[in-house]
Structures are given as C-alpha cells and as structure tokens.
Amino acid sequence: MKKVKADPKGVLTGAHYLDGDFALAEGALAAGCRFFGGYPITPSTETAERFSERIPRVGGIFIQMEDELGSIASLIGAVWGGKKAMTVTSGPGFSLMMENIGLACMMETPLVIANVQRGGPSTGLPTLTGQQDMMQAKFGSHGDYEIIALSPDSPQECFDLTIEAFNLSETYRVPTFIMTDECVGHMHEKVVIPPADEIELVERKWYTGPKEAYLPYKPDKDLVPFMIKAGDGYRFHTTGLTHDERGYPVINAECQKVNVTNIIEKIRKNADKIIKIEEDQIDGAEVVLISYGITSRVAVRAVRLAREAGIKVGTMRLITVWPFPEKRIKELAPKIKAFIIPEVNYGQMVREVERSAAGKTQVFGVPHCGGWVHNPEDILNVIKEAVK
Amino acid sequence: MNDEARQKNPIEHLLRMDRIPHIWCPGCGIGTVVTSFAEALRKSNIELDKIAVVSGIGCTGRVAGYIKLDSFHTTHGRAIPFATGLKLANPELKVVVFSGDGDIFGIGGNHFIHAARRNMDLTVICVNNFNYAMTGGQVAATTPTDANASTAPYGNFEQPFSIPYLADAAGASYVARWTALHLRRVTKSIQEGMDKNGFSLIEVITPCVTLYARRNRLGDGLNLLKYYYDKSEIKHGADTRDLDISYQGKLIVGKFIDRERPNFIDAMNQHMSTVLGDDYELYGRINND
C-alpha cells in the first residue's frame, strides 16, 4: 500500500462552520476525488451542489447524470479512466444504484458512495432522518459480495471518514459507503480541515510489472489484484460476468468459486484491519450500548442518565458498520447482562448483534420508525429493563 | 485453415483470438459489424492503445469481449453512462459504445438521449436485429409492427422507435443507418463517427437468423440479406422523420446527420473559462480537430 500526501489544491485548510453534506464534499476533494457523477435527491443534494461549485476549480469533473443508474455507471467508468470518483444519494437513489454496485464489486472498482439516509420505504420522508438502509448497504445488490461501510456522527467525521472511505476503497478495491443520515447531513458544526501535508492518502494499487505479464484479476498476497487504467496500452478486458484471472468470462461453478471467494475473502480476511470502533467504560460494564451515526449522539444523554442512576453502562460506537465487528461482540457477550442497540429503523444492525452474541447474552433493540431521533428516555427505559 | 493463412488474417491482431470461437449463431450479422469496425480501426489514424470499447448486455454486448483493445462488458443498458465516465475521466481516449438495440434503446434509452443531448464525444454502434436475441427472441422497442416475437406471439401491435429520428431529435452530431449488407459503408461511417468531435450514432440492421427470422419464417441469413438488397435505398441526408421501418418494408439507409456543435468537454471549457476566468484550468485535451 503506497501512501502519499494530499494535493493541496483540493484541501480547504482551516476551521469552518459546515454541515455534514458539505463536509462530505470537502473530505472527498481532500482525498483527491476529481470525478463526481450524481443526481439530486433530498437530503443529500447539498453535497452535489458543493461539488458543482468546487470541483471545476480544482481540475475535476462534475456531471449531473440523468438518474442514479447513470450516476453509478459513470463512476465506474471514471475510475477505470484513472480518476477517484464519488457520488452521493439517499434511499430511493441508493436502491437504483444497487445493480451497478454489484458490477463495481465484480470489477473490483474502488469508489465511494455517501448515503444521506432518510425515512423510507419508498418516497417515505424525504426531509426527515432515518437509518433504514443499513442492511441494504450490505445486501442490496444480488449475489454474494462484501463492501465496506462507515457511519459518521458529526460533520467533522463526515470530512474525516470520507478520506478514510477513499483510502479503504483504494486499499481493497471495493465500493465503500458512507452511511450518514439527514440529521448529520444537515447539522452545522465546526469542521477543522488540516493542511494537505497532514492528510495521508492511499494511492491506487497500480500495476508496475511487465505489460505482457499483467493479469487484471490475479490476487496479490493481500488478495487484492493490481489495477491499471484504460489508455495505458494493456488492451485488457473486464466484465460483470464470472471471470478468470485474465478477466475473461468463464461460466461454470469452479470459476465462480474462485471469483466470488476472492471478492469476499479480501474483505473478511482483512476485517481486523478495516474495523474501527470507539469504546467507553466497557470494563466492568453490566450492559453495553451499541450505536452508530446520529443515534450515538442521542444515546449520550440516555447513558449519562443511566450512569447517574447507578447502572454500569459501557458504550460501543460503530465507526465501521460493515464489515461488522462480530469478534468483539462475541468476546463481550458472556461478560455482560445485555447489549442495547438503539437505531432509527425497525431493527437492522441489532440482528448482527444477535447473530454475533449467539445467545450468550440478552440483546435489546430500541427501534424507531424514522422521521426523528429517539427520545433519550426511551433508550434509558430499555437500559433499566435490561439490568432488572 | 493452415497457419500461414491464419497469420494473413488482417484483423487477427484486433481480436482476442484466445476467445475464438465466439458465441454468435451461424448467419448472425454481429460478426459482420465487428469486421467493419476492425476494418475502420485498421484504416484509422487513431492510436489503438487510446481506443476503448464499452458494451452492455446481450448478443452484441459480447463484442467488448472479443475486441483486443481496452474493453468493458458492463451491465444491461448502462454502457453509455459507463462510457461517459470513462471519457470524462480520460479525455484522450476515443470511446466506442458497441451494443444492441435492446440494450441502447430499450433498457438504456434514457442514457442514450441524454448523452446525445450533451453531445458527449462517444461513438455509438448499435446493432439492430429487431428483437431481444440473447434471451430468446422477445419483442423489443425496435421490433417492426406486425412482426412476431416470443413475447408477442400474436404479433407486435406497438410502434417501434425510429433510431435515427430519435438520435437526431436528441441532438446527435452524426447519424447513419446501414444494413449488414453495406459492409464498406458501415466501415466508412464508423470511421467518420470516430473522427467526429461529438456524439455519433451508427445503426446497423442485422439478421437474427435463429430467432427473429425463424419465428417470422423469413428464411436464413441469405434470405435476409436478399431482403436488405431488394428493399434498402440509400438516401443521404434524408429527413429523419421519414425513416420508419415497417415489417419487411423499405429500409432507408445512409448518412442522415453530420453537423457541428461543441461537445460536452469543449462546451464546459468554453463556458467555465468565460465565467471563472483565471480560476479555471482548461480540462483535458481540447478537441478541435
């Protein structure tokens, strides 16, 4: 993995007062993203607007595509043309992108998609918050594959984690999602953008060996193949069909096994390196509250009230949502009375916690249908119930 | 064929010979269009390493897999937006979209009209065989009224798209239609399309012997070529409103549109440098040739 410093041209160094949507765009520009193909959708539109203003001044391309099917397709094309690329969307647009997210996984194309989640299903609550696309991020496209997803809880983290998302997507040649939500997207806070020479970026895993020996899908030691771009004289082929190391289609179960195993294992085997979680007062905790995104901000009050009432509550904030930190959950499960998982959906990541805890402790979800965040009292009540 | 004769095949270096034999049926016209494309590449001055081929899904979608250039076999209908990203990211590339009528004008129709509207610098070669062939001969947006298809077993009662009329209305810079019989003219149009500084569309009507012809009892490949021979009429510059294709009816072919307007990148550069002045750095290569 080759690391380089950020190009100062895209870095708006200084302290700013930005909303999460704008911070996503600034994070991407700092990370060297020079292609944005998108389609307007509430509550993510401000990110596209910011890109349209900023990217022409730093030597990049903004194109408003005809729909989200086109947006994601243009991104994959742009990456194979040599650029770093990003788009931003919300639920309905995310649904439309699903097919080509599969293509990006199959072609092992690094790119970043931010989903500023709103309440669903369908058109749902365009202007109000939700965390209801968490499972879709993992399983929304057909077939078996792995992706990476991060969940920021502040505008500052929208900036920081967008850079992280680009670095992860380049390291593992995999689509990486920033699963934020309307509240964080429209929340204005201080965002500190460091100088360019303090921002470390992962360079694309360019192939440098002899041209005639290049195999586009031959996994390297870390299971990630080397990449090239169109126009460099390799005359290579890539396809969404099941393919061999040459990138040629091979339609049989043997090749399928090799191909699918590679795109899954490169993430699963590197999960420990990818996963980032933030823990507080876990040692000696009776219960552990797990949260992500806006819900982790809301949970702070519930946890404080519970601790004031004498309950030993540990917290775990998922910065990486996918791959899921199942090992850590497994480790903690036998030591505590319960996990508590508030989330602005009818119960999604709670299933992962249940699966990982495997009956070794109790698991309580705190569902919320969306449109607003939890009342901290509702979370507190579940904490109290859990320690009874 | 002996080794010496094989070596003399003038387009072999443009094909992935390690993937031959191809999947197309005997009598299919796609290979003919590939030969015309290869011939256009041979005659062209464009550096082969700078040409990329993007296909969607379907019989013609397999073209990208057989052409020995940078080649992308993408998803159904999305070849044009993929090509749009590729071209914009690397403007020195000459990007050719090679796909079928179902892919480009059925599932991908929206992308087609917007790429034409933007005058994206792409060359789109659309093989029109009047049906969805890969999946077994279903009715398409291009199936002539009254023709039979596996999902129109009582005959098609819908009106098909006239591809050149649509391309013209959407703003394409270059529009031509030929049949698989017009080999040299297809080659010439592909060359002109690739040299065009903007969006070009070359429709090639080809026989689908296994499905369309069999189902409609039109005979074999030769019978269809005979139909093209008898019923096609070359009319360069014809009004694109007059190019409808009826079942086994007249086929007006030729070069209909060849006009100049700034492509997407040129228009962006002109506009942005006017508005932003020194704050704007011209993007990519300015293609004025």
Tell me what you see in this structure.
The complex is a heterodimer of chains A (388) and B (289). By secondary structure, chain A is an alpha/beta fold. Chain A is built from 13 helices and 18 strands. Chain A has helices spanning 20-30, 45-54, 68-80, 91-106, 134-139, 155-172, 182-186, 253-268, 271-274, 294-308, 326-332, 349-357, 376-387, and strands spanning 3-5, 14-19, 33-38, 61-64, 84-89, 111-119, 125-129, 148-150, 175-181, 188-193, 200-202, 237-239, 277-280, 287-291, 313-318, 320-322, 338-343, 362-367. In chain A, helix 1 (20-30) packs parallel to helix 6 (155-172), helix 3 runs parallel beside helix 4 and helix 10 crosses helix 13. The longest helix of chain A is centred in the middle third of the chain and has 18 residues, at 155-172. Chain B has a single domain, classed as Rossmann fold (3-Layer(aba) Sandwich), CATH 3.40.50.970. Chains A and B meet through helix 3, helix 4 and strand 12 of A and strand 2, helix 4, helix 6 and helix 11 of B. Strand 12 (237-239) of chain A pairs parallel with strand 2 (70-73) of chain B, so a sheet runs across the interface.
Short structural summary:
Chain A is an alpha/beta fold and 388 residues long. Chain A contains 13 helices and 18 strands. Chain A has helices at residues 20-30, 45-54, 68-80, 91-106, 134-139, 155-172, 182-186, 253-268, 271-274, 294-308, 326-332, 349-357, 376-387; strands spanning 3-5, 14-19, 33-38, 61-64, 84-89, 111-119, 125-129, 148-150, 175-181, 188-193, 200-202, 237-239, 277-280, 287-291, 313-318, 320-322, 338-343, 362-367.
What fraction of the residues of chain A are assigned to beta strands by DSSP? Answer: 15-25%
Computed structural class of chain A: alpha/beta
Largest interface: A-B, 43 and 43 residues
Shape of chain A: globular
- Which bin fits the share of residues in helices of chain A? 25-40%
Can you count the helices of chain B? 11
Shape of chain B: globular
The termini of chain B sit apart by 42 Å
Radius of gyration of chain A: 21 Å
The quaternary state of the protein chains shown equals heterodimer
Query: In terms of per-residue confidence, which ranges of chain B show pLDDT below 50 for 5 or more consecutive residues?
Result: none
